[in-house]
Amino acid sequence: HKLFPNDMEPLLKTLKAHNIRVLHIIGGNDSAATGLSVSEAARADKYELQVINLPKTIDNDIVLTDHSPGYGSAARFISQATFGVGRDAEAMGINSPICIIEVMGRDSGWLATASSFYKKTDRDAPHFIGIPEVIFSEESFMISIENAYRNYGYAVAVVSEKIRSGEGNLGRENPPTFTDAFGHSYFESPGNYLSDLVEKRLGVRCRWEKPGSIQRSLMDAVSTTDREEAYELGQKAIEMARSEMNEVIVTIIRSDNKKYQYSIGSANLKDVAGKIKYLPENYRPNEEGYTSDSFKSYLRPLLGNPIHDTEPIFNLL
Amino acid sequence: HKLFPNDMEPLLKTLKAHNIRVLHIIGGNDSAATGLSVSEAARADKYELQVINLPKTIDNDIVLTDHSPGYGSAARFISQATFGVGRDAEAMGINSPICIIEVMGRDSGWLATASSFYKKTDRDAPHFIGIPEVIFSEESFMISIENAYRNYGYAVAVVSEKIRSGEGNLGRENPPTFTDAFGHSYFESPGNYLSDLVEKRLGVRCRWEKPGSIQRSLMDAVSTTDREEAYELGQKAIEMARSEMNEVIVTIIRSDNKKYQYSIGSANLKDVAGKIKYLPENYRPNEEGYTSDSFKSYLRPLLGNPIHDTEPIFNLL
Prior knowledge:
2 copies of one chain form a homodimer. By secondary structure, the first copy, chain A, is of the alpha/beta class. Chain A is 35% helix and 18% strand. In chain A, the strands form 4 sheets. Chain A has a 4-stranded mixed β-sheet with strand order 1-2-11-12, with helices on both faces. In chain A, a hairpin with a 5-residue loop joins strand 8 (178-179) and strand 9. The N and C termini of chain A lie far apart (54 Å). Chain A binds chain B through residues 1, 76-77, 80-81, 83-85, 87-89, 92-96, 99, 101, 177-178, 180, 186, 196, 199, 204-214, 216-221, 308, and chain B through 1, 76-77, 80-81, 83-85, 87-89, 92-96, 99, 101, 177-178, 180, 186, 196, 199, 204-214, 216-221, 308.
């Protein structure tokens, strides 16, 4: 959990009691911030401690690394889920023609945008992608969904759990469903909110699916790239500890995109802590659910192998 | 979609116009009923037509067949999803300790019960399974979840989308979220309802995940058994058409459970139409989320290969 100033003293005491001199923290931006604050507290206390972080987040929003382990596997799940839900909705026809998939991603649209990987034609899902980097317009959303529904008899939208309208997080018009001990409030999900909106406007049933933590934990969907790199990064972190590095995070540096070659490097925790790597403009999806070839080239090796063949095996009537 | 009496005349007219003499219908109990009614209408009209159905439903509730293609793949997904969500909730600790997974299954608990496949110890998910065959008790549910939460710091429940309390479908106290053109009403899901209940009673955050149609369409989770059998059943249906069978459904007959041997047979549509194969008593989960070894033996070959190894690779502190 997030460290508070009062946590530091017992934490240092525990490290000292066991004579722990190397601390590896695995996680995202918050974990980098945690690593930095522990390192600073140890220095102030004149306790020799090496803090070496490892990147791990399905959000893929850590700066100074090409990508973070965890992302490839979650992206593999979401890309297949979107394609599959599309074919399912197409087959179900009027009984269940529209579906919204709510995807994780706190601040960035890396994961939601991966849903476009298998989209080759206008007919394929997704027909709209909502990401936190772009102010969400209910009108644009409805136009995309209605167009797809009228043209193909079904429509699929993918939205990040934290998409924002001009007024704030979507669905926050209602009171929170739960408030935790820290005072953090949890609100109705945007998937639920948008599903109601579609049913009211179009008068057809709109499902919404929320794979939740399934998208980051399904054993069948582990990316082979993720699995190999996570292991390799762990080995590198140990090497870095042996060569007396401190206050750093292990990073992945892509050197060749076509053949996917990479090396492992490091960055200072203070250059990473609390920062967010947003989805760059040229990777963002358009309003019909397409993303760019450059994003697909970036994503492809991270998905691992095998990649499924989605060419149609027969022509639809 | 469901056939209405008025659909029969245009349907027969279309069959005649194209001189179609064999009709294959792929689906569940409703599809068997459809096949039967088309066959009867053709006979009444003295139009020679062979109707040969093929079983296909993730609900696995077709009578007179050992199982139905589709079930193994969805069961593969749900078994892994439950195990993974359990390990995820365990790792998240107090931030997100309880999770409810809402699983498909209209009348039967075959799919929800598959969630117990990887459970080996009391600690492993799931800690409760709710199925349509058993009247749902909020008290039993809360006791199971609270016990797991107190003992292990986290808890996972799996519930069928159509679990029923003594008063009717769970969550039906509220008005329907949508009513379609046929007058079918769609209600708030039991996962949402139970999640609210847990948060109110235990004062901790309770997620609920709804994989929805993802559970029946994720390419990575296709069971190898399903894929092979679906193809084989298709070939058999053609053979049956050639040998002039009529008003039948192709079935799978398991001859040896230990080695998983089966043969392909057939049943009369009138013995299948509209009937439901409920989960038998000796396959039902107990109140701690375990099911019987006999169910696991039944399920194992349907999940296909490979089966993941879930033995812990290190001891928890």
